[in-house]
Design goal:
By secondary structure, the protein is α/β, with parallel strands linked by helices. Helices cover 38% and strands 17% of the residues. The protein has a 7-stranded mixed sheet, with helices on both faces.
């Protein structure tokens, strides 16, 4: 009898519950047991666990958040946490862990695998920055939120003749800003993967004004570094990521553009709206595919990989290959966006 330990790590994303449901139902088909650990690695450390049943996952396909809770907790902050994980892994007679997580999760999972705790990571993050998969669970839903926000902002931007700067999440990558900007009809998109100057953006806005378009919507990814920013002033979290929220790049960009174009600016930071809500059908399908695929791998004795999808094919990427790489935005989509600037 195989026994899977299931937990969620990192930030929340639409579709996590769909993945939990898929892992559970596929496991039950093979008569595997599933134990769910509450609030990520915290639950595994404290052995805060519950048995997952068909009733546990009934009706959660469309529910946002996570029925198991989730946390950004790095067990490698203290050796005693790692020892507790190893002890509870054995105490619960687990075959392996299935972790629904993000880039930081892969780093933790890799270290644990080297200490005898095998696992498989199912990629979920609205940032879509996990190496080894074209898309991560939650990304499509977040893009739809951005697109919908831009639809609404067009009316007020036009009525007040304003420059609207919309800041998206995305950490170091521009996937959200790029896809959300294209599908929402942004007038300019600023992402970390494509070099730019403030003057270029201002010139485009001025050109629109001369064409009789007295408003503009600019979408900027939170990970963008403005040309005059001093990188040495950035703050970093315990995983080494820049704390972008404190830099408020949207406000900085809006101020600079307003000074040049003399268009009154307003800023919309979409923030956590992008991470909640009902998962789209695309995210539900992806989460279901990856969850069932993961259990298939368990049956074959495969572990210590990130599951993913590449050109519609289900794939695996070893932790050694994925843990230190970032899935940066594909700039061919930016060339597509330029046609509409």
């Amino acid at each position: 009898m195989k026994r899977i330990g299931l937990l969620c790590d990192g930030g929340d994303a639409p579709g996590i519950n769909t993945a939990i449901r898929a892992v559970a139902r596929a496991s039950f088909e093979r008569e595997y047991e599933v134990l769910g650990f509450i609030d990520g690695f915290k639950g595994l450390i404290e052995n805060d666990v519950k048995i997952i049943t068909k009733m546990s996952v009934s009706g959660i396909l469309t529910v946002g958040g996570s029925i198991l809770g989730i946390s950004r907790f790095n067990p490698y902050k203290d050796p005693k946490y790692v020892e507790a994980i190893k002890e509870n892994f054995k105490k619960n007679s687990l075959t392996l862990l299935v972790i629904i997580g993000d880039r930081d999760t892969i780093t933790i999972a890799k270290k644990l695998s080297e200490e005898g705790v095998p696992s498989i990571v199912i990629p979920k993050t609205i940032d879509n920055d996990i190496y080894g998969t074209d898309y991560s669970i939650g990304f499509d839903t977040a893009v739809s939120v951005i697109s919908s926000a831009l639809d609404n902002l067009h009316a007020t931007a036009s009525a007040h003749h304003r420059l609207m700067v919309v800041e998206t999440m995305g950490r170091e990558t521009g996937w959200l800003a790029l896809f959300g900007g294209v599908t929402g009809g942004a007038d300019y998109i600023v992402i970390p993967e494509v070099p730019f100057t403030i003057e270029e953006i201002a010139a485009h806005i001025e050109k629109r004004k001369k064409e009789g378009k007295n408003f503009s919507i600019v979408v900027v990814a939170e990970g963008v570094v403005l040309p005059d920013e001093d990188r040495s002033t950035f703050e970093y979290d315990e995983f080494g990521h820049k704390v972008n929220a404190k830099r408020m790049v949207g406000y900085r960009l809006a101020t600079k553009l307003e000074n040049i174009t003399h268009l009154k600016s307003r800023v919309m930071v979409l923030g956590y709206l992008q991470r909640g809500g009902v998962p789209t059908s695309a995210d539900r399908l992806l989460a279901t595919q990856l969850g069932v695929f993961t259990v298939d791998l368990v049956a074959k004795g495969i572990a210590n990989v990130v599951v993913g999808v590449n050109k519609s094919e289900l794939t695996t990427t070893p932790y050694e290959e994925a843990f230190d790489k970032i899935h940066m935005a594909d700039t061919t989509y930016y060339e597509l966006a330029r046609i509409f600037f």
